[in-house]
């Protein structure tokens, strides 16, 4: 029985899959990337049971999903290397207002902050987009100077190519990355992966049942481990504790003589 993890382009699940492999070597992983050209596939893989969990980038249809927000990605503007944004230091950022007169090589509705100030949208001069099948095609158009794009930083880095530069852009909301699963299909294995993503250690496991090759195996509870460790510590401490000192024979004799003298004194007073 495998555990399937889907992830959207730009997300790196390696740190979580490595921990899973260490803790549950009996349960093989299937890890695959969803189609970046079809954003709805991020959750479709859950609904058609191709994946147990999916690392998604918002916006997605959250109907019936359980979600954990993981982190946000800063937006960057990508343009040809001779574009005016090249004058901005790499540690700096570009105010969105400076991009109002640019041609965006994306659906304006996907970047509503730009859409609301764009000159070509306001005056109706916006021209049709060239045919592009994926982000690699988009980057080709950017490198050719046809227009700009505004992307999450991880995607811009993943599809970076010669002839393209990028700078952080101010005024565009950051993108949310989350872990998603079908709420009605929250299996013990899904629970375990959620725990890994949340940073739960192996020692702090909640003792859930993990399915291994179809056989339920009860994990040892952390409390039982703690009790065993405490018992071992007590035994070790008992071994190190010094034995009680032996009393000297003379002291015992003196005490005995004193007791005998006291008895004789009481008899004499009768």
From TrEMBL:
Keyword Iron assigned: no
Write the protein's name: DNA-binding transcriptional LysR family regulator
Residues of the LysR substrate-binding domain: 18-199
Basic residues bias: start-end ranges: 240-249
Family affiliation: Belongs to the LysR transcriptional regulatory family.
Keyword Flavoprotein applies:
no
Gene Ontology terms for molecular function? DNA binding; DNA-binding transcription factor activity
Which keywords does the record carry?
DNA-binding, Transcription, Transcription regulation
Region of interest called Disordered, as start-end residue ranges on this chain: 218-270
Gene3D superfamilies in the record: Periplasmic binding protein-like II
Species, as recorded: Glaciibacter psychrotolerans
User: Which terms in the GO cellular component ontology are assigned?
Assistant: protein-DNA complex
UniProt-listed InterPro entries: LysR_subst-bd
Cite a single Pfam family from the UniProt record: LysR_substrate
């Amino acid at each position: 029985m495998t555990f399937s993890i889907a992830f959207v382009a730009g997300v790196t699940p390696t740190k979580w899959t490595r921990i899973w492999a260490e803790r549950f070597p009996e349960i093989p992983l299937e890890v695959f990337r969803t189609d970046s050209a079809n954003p709805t596939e991020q959750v479709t893989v859950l609904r058609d049971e191709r994946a147990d969990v999916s690392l998604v980038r918002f916006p997605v249809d959250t109907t019936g999903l359980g979600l954990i927000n993981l982190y946000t990605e800063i937006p960057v503007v990508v343009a040809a290397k001779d574009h005016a944004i090249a004058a901005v230091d790499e540690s700096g950022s570009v105010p969105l207002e400076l991009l109002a007169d640019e041609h965006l090589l994306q659906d304006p509705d996907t970047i509503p902050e730009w859409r609301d100030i764009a000159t070509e949208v306001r005056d109706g001069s916006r021209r049709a987009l060239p045919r592009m099948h994926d982000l690699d095609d988009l980057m080709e158009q950017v490198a050719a100077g046809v227009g700009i794009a505004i992307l999450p930083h991880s995607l811009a880095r993943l599809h970076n190519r010669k002839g393209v530069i990028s700078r952080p852009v101010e005024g565009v909301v950051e993108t949310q990355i989350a872990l998603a699963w079908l709420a009605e299909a929250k299996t013990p294995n899904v629970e375990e992966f959620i725990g890994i993503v949340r940073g739960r250690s192996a020692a702090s496991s909640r003792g859930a049942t993990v399915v291994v090759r179809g056989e339920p195996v009860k994990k040892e509870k952390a409390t039982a481990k703690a009790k065993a460790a405490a018992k071992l510590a007590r035994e070790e401490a008992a071994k190190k504790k010094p034995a009680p000192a032996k009393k000297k024979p003379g002291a015992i004799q003196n005490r005995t003589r004193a007791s005998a003298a006291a008895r004789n004194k009481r008899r004499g007073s009768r």
